[in-house]
Write a structure and sequence with these properties.
Elements lengths: L3 H13 L2 H7 L4 H15 L4 E4 L2 E4 L1 H28 L4 E7 L5 H14 L3 E7 L5 H6 L5 E4 L8 E16 L19 E4 L8 H7 L8 E4 L3 H9 L4 E5 H5 L7 E19 L6 H15 L1
Parallel strand pairs: 3-4, 3-5, 7-8, 7-9
Antiparallel strand pairs: 1-2, 5-10, 6-9, 6-10
């Protein structure tokens, strides 16, 4: 019968490149590893891999099992971790994935009251600019995904946390600051600062510039919100950020903001797996975030 250790062997072979390396990683002998897979092949009635020199090449059946391993092994590891926590008298851990790059300060405002309410729950945040949020949810790498771009798929639930408008920010002396309405052609000679994410995930391109068949003169990517805003405050260019974030910066930076075209209106969503919907500390986190931003 197919078992977890079969998936672990296939994953190790693909990750290490050879049977010898996989056997070392799994603390097995190579003959034992090969025998285990040969026995599984006999049971299933189909080969799983083919030898290619020192390396192996997966068959269609093997690739199917490898994809299964990528999905299931993290779930086994997560389950074991959680069960150990239960044995230690702890409630659980909440891992949050961030696809909303300027949302970190917003998250911090919710973290303290949440941790006070749930003292036996640990919290961790994964903030990566090339974060594959939906895949991370399905792979059990994160428990809650904070995103402005939900992908509604079977098995996932997205709860809107709060609405916002994406605004164009510039130095107070910038020529665009005097305009009552921003048109796509207004940006053709501008330097645009954004976070380092693919253009297809930037709303100012997808919802404003590209539909009008326009572009900026120069597109520069900056990793941190603070440096990005300082570049705009130095009149080096413009940027597009949530209105609520910009409002928090106006007190100490010479910035003004304008609606982009007719307005780009978005929501921040909290995504979870459907089968986690009744876990009390996950429900508590969502309730905390929604209540905070509707207060």
């Amino acid at each position: 019968m197919l078992d977890r250790h079969h998936l672990a062997i296939i994953a190790a072979v693909m990750e290490t490149g050879t049977l010898t390396n996989a056997a070392d990683a799994l603390h097995l002998t190579q003959p034992a590893l090969s025998h285990t897979i040969k026995k599984l092949e006999d049971i299933l009635g189909t080969p799983i891999w083919e030898k290619d020199g020192r390396r192996v090449r997966l068959t269609r059946a093997g690739d199917y099992l490898y994809q299964m391993a990528l999905r299931l092994l993290p779930q086994f590891e997560r389950g074991e971790t959680e069960l150990r926590r239960f044995a230690q008298g702890l409630r659980g851990s909440l891992r949050i994935g961030m696809e909303c790059h300027p949302c970190y300060q917003w998250l911090l405002r919710n973290v303290r009251p949440y941790l006070e309410q749930w003292p036996d729950v640990d919290l961790d945040v994964h903030q990566q600019f090339q974060f594959k949020g939906i895949a991370a949810l399905f792979a059990y790498e994160v428990d809650v995904l904070i995103t402005p771009d939900p992908v509604f798929r079977e098995g996932l639930i997205f709860t809107p946390a709060f609405p916002y408008e994406l605004k164009l920010a510039m130095h107070a002396s910038h020529p665009l600051a005097a305009k009552t309405a921003i048109e796509a052609t207004d940006l053709s000679n501008e330097t645009l600062f954004t976070y380092p994410v693919p253009t297809e995930r930037l709303d100012i391109f997808q919802q404003f510039l590209l539909p009008a068949k326009q572009n900026v003169a120069l597109h520069k990517r900056v990793e941190t919100t603070e440096i990005l805003l300082e570049m705009v405050a130095a009149n080096r260019g413009i940027t597009a950020l949530p209105g609520w974030l910009l409002e928090n910066q106006f007190a100490h930076l010479p910035l003004v903001s304008k609606s982009i075209g007719a307005g780009i209106h978005k929501h921040i969503y909290l995504g979870i797996r459907e089968n986690d919907a009744e876990i009390d500390y996950i429900k508590g986190f969502i309730a905390q975030c929604v209540a905070h931003d509707n207060a």
